[in-house]
């Protein structure tokens, strides 16, 4: 573990950079620190989990190929105690690794090689996503609690950020919940991938828009929603997705 220079204010967002390629980790850390973030580094999987538990970062920039524990297992363990944003670093073309990473709770990924400025922009984009979606069109009005949304036996509680099917709690990642939140707030509206990205990630987000499909696939699996005949999240051919009736 290598803490960044203590030059940032205590209120600065905390970013943990995890990569066993130390020159790359330190370059990324330097750019993030210059952008105003409080940055720490870890170079092995076990150190990453321990540092995340100790520092409670807002974002983890996490390489998949790590000694001790790989990035997938690090993300899986971090998700047991933290809902921080996880941005995974993958080799170009490793689609399987990206899908596995997203399946254990990563919010986004960026492929190597990348520019440090691009990575800083991604971190800035995820941090613009409010943790409770405060101030968005689908957030509860100040001083009120939005009632639960019902779609057959699916219940979505936007205020408590809880989801259940037939009374059984369903554990979703923050990104998965946010997608379901957006869809269920306007159930008759068909959202394109780009519209969902603008709502859930940020209008400044750049990358492969099919990341939405991966997250929707995970949502369906967790809801036991048959993708061939979905009840909860419907595919609108040529457009994107909308909420089903359940």
TrEMBL record:
PROSITE patterns: OMPR_PHOB, RESPONSE_REGULATORY. CDD domains: trans_reg_C. Residues 14-127 form the Response regulatory domain. Residues 146-245 bind DNA. Coiled coil: none annotated. Signal peptide: none annotated. The modification 4-aspartylphosphate is found at residue 63. The keyword Repeat does not apply. SUPFAM superfamilies: C-terminal effector domain of the bipartite response regulators, CheY-like. The keyword Kinase does not apply. Keywords: DNA-binding, Phosphoprotein, Transcription, Transcription regulation. Residues 146-245 form the OmpR/PhoB-type domain. This is Response regulator transcription factor. It comes from Intrasporangium calvum.
């Amino acid at each position: 573990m290598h803490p960044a220079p203590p030059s940032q204010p205590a209120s600065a967002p905390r970013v943990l950079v995890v990569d066993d390629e130390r020159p790359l980790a330190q370059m990324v850390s330097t750019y993030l620190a210059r952008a105003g973030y409080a940055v720490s580094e870890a170079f092995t999987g076990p150190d990453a989990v321990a540092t995340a538990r100790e520092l409670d970062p807002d974002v983890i920039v996490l390489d998949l190929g790590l000694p001790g524990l790989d990035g997938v297992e690090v993300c899986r363990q971090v998700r047991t105690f933290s809902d921080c944003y996880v941005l995974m670093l993958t080799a170009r073309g490793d689609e399987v690794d990206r899908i596995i990473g997203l399946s254990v709770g990563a919010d986004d990924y960026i492929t190597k090689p990348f520019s440090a400025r691009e990575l800083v922009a991604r971190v800035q984009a995820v941090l613009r996503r409010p943790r409770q979606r405060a101030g968005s069109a689908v957030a509860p009005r100040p001083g009120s609690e939005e009632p639960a949304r019902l779609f057959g036996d699916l219940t979505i509680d936007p205020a408590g950020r809880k989801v259940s099917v037939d009374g059984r709690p369903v554990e979703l990642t923050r990104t998965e919940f946010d997608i379901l939140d957006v869809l269920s707030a306007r159930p008759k509206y068909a959202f394109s991938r780009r519209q969902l990205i603008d709502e859930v990630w940020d209008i400044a987000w750049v990358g492969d828009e099919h990341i939405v499909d991966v997250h929707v696939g995970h949502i369906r699996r967790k809801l036991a929603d048959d993708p061939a005949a979905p009840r909860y999240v419907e595919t609108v051919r040529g457009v994107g997705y909308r909420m089903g009736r359940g």
